[in-house]
């Protein structure tokens, strides 16, 4: 049966393997996420370990990486997985993104062989949860000003500082922590049971409630010399990890938008007002038409970036274009869908308000819209407006 939201027949641009991977992820979301996510969101709790093991069995954790138990899938296949995961909930996609595109990717690209062998197979299987410690309480969009410090003490390193808004931190076995040393920004693999490391769950969130988010405090944490990521030198290293995660968001945000639009289309064609279905009114059809156009444009953009990534490579500023556009449009779609559902749009019985609330966080993390506008502006003009 033809998907009414695939007006441009974009499925024809996917190969058989890509469609099969998408179908597998869609099934696991339908079975393991959709029946429970509204309750997770309401309670502000999510079974991270259970989901991680399930995703690990399917090869979704670090799926675009090679070796060490990782699936070695294409960038497009990974993007499709992110889309299906976020159609369930942004928090669920964040679990996979932080695990694979931030924590695992940092170790995979910049770590020693010993670090890779120790952590990546367990993380790919979902037996070890990872987090990525870059954002700080006073330094979000400006990581170059990070206050966390790493100093040498003999052969050891001693880390002092704090990280904030760290997905998976309260349940993680390992953190990739970025700190400023005399030589510049350096990355460290920090087991969370190391003395001096504490993680606190952040409560009272109004967004991403089906996600474990925490603060990490580093109180003179002593690490051996081999805890440092040997290939990570300077701020470009953590920023390259952010580009990996942003790419997943380019696809993922469209999953939330698609779920809102699919829900709304069903609602509008079955809900009767003034003697006809809501979908029979011109204003409703205009809203639906505008939303599906933006959804399909976003999917075309995501697919193009994915093909670039699988070919010659995709630039960070190109990923910024995708993150800026797709998250902004996904949030607009969620808000518009809410208007068609009327009062039911704010009910937890429907996913629309949950997706809209989640997308407010997605709009901010991995670079705000303003940051991505400046990235694109610098590419256009050759002038940096960051300082």
From TrEMBL:
Sorted alphabetically, the keyword list is: FAD, Flavoprotein, Oxidoreductase, Transit peptide
**Pfam families this protein is in?**
Acyl-CoA_dh_1, Acyl-CoA_dh_M, Acyl-CoA_dh_N
Is Transit peptide one of the keywords? yes
Q: Which residues form the Acyl-CoA oxidase/dehydrogenase middle domain?
A: 131-221
Tell me the Gene Ontology biological-process terms attached to this UniProt entry. Answer: fatty acid beta-oxidation using acyl-CoA dehydrogenase; fatty-acyl-CoA biosynthetic process
Acyl-CoA dehydrogenase/oxidase C-terminal domain mapped to chain residues: 233-380
| Listed cofactors | FAD
Please give one Gene Ontology molecular function term for this protein.
glutaryl-CoA dehydrogenase activity
Domain (Acyl-CoA dehydrogenase/oxidase N-terminal) ranges: 16-127
Which family is this protein grouped under? Answer: Belongs to the acyl-CoA dehydrogenase family.
**UniProt name for this protein:** Acyl-CoA dehydrogenase
Q: Give the source species.
A: Micromonospora rosaria
Per the UniProt record, the lineage of the source organism begins with: Bacteria, Bacillati, Actinomycetota, Actinomycetes, Micromonosporales
């Amino acid at each position: 049966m033809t998907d009414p939201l695939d007006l441009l027949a974009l499925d024809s641009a996917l190969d058989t393997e890509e469609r099969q991977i998408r179908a597998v992820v869609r099934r696991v979301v339908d079975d393991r996420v959709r029946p429970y996510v509204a309750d997770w969101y309401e309670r502000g709790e999510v079974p991270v370990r259970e989901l991680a093991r399930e995703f690990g069995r399917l090869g979704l954790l670090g799926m675009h990486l090679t070796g060490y138990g990782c699936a070695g899938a294409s960038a497009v296949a990974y993007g499709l997985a992110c889309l299906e995961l976020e159609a369930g909930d942004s928090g669920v996609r964040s679990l996979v993104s932080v695990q694979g595109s931030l924590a695992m990717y940092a170790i995979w690209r910049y770590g020693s062989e010993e670090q890779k062998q120790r952590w990546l197979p367990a993380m790919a299987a979902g037996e070890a949860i990872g987090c990525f410690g870059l954002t700080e309480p006073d330094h979000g969009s400006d990581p170059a000003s990070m206050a966390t410090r790493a100093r040498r003490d003999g052969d050891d390193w001693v880390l002092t500082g704090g990280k904030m808004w760290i997905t998976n931190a309260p349940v993680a076995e390992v953190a990739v922590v970025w700190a400023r040393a005399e030589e510049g920004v350096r990355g460290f693999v920090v087991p969370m049971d190391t003395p001096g490391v504490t993680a606190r769950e952040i409560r009272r969130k109004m967004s991403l409630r089906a996600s474990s988010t925490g603060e990490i405090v580093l109180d003179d944490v002593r690490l051996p010399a081999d805890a440092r990521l040997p290939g990570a030198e300077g701020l470009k290293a953590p920023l390259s990890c952010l580009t990996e995660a942003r790419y997943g968001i380019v696809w993922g945000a469209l999953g939330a938008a698609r779920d809102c639009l699919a829900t709304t289309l069903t609602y509008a064609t079955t809900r009767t007002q003034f003697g006809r279905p809501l979908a029979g009114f011109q204003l409703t059809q205009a809203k639906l038409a505008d939303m599906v156009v933006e959804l399909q444009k976003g999917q075309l953009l995501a697919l193009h970036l994915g093909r670039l990534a699988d070919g010659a490579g995709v630039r960070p500023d190109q990923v910024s274009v995708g993150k800026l556009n797709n998250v902004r449009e996904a949030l607009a779609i969620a808000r518009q869908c809410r208007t068609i559902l009327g009062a039911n749009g704010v009910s937890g019985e429907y996913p629309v308000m949950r997706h809209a609330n989640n997308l407010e966080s997605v709009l901010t993390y991995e670079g705000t819209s303003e940051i991505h506008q400046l990235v694109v502006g610098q590419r256009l003009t050759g002038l940096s407006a960051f300082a």
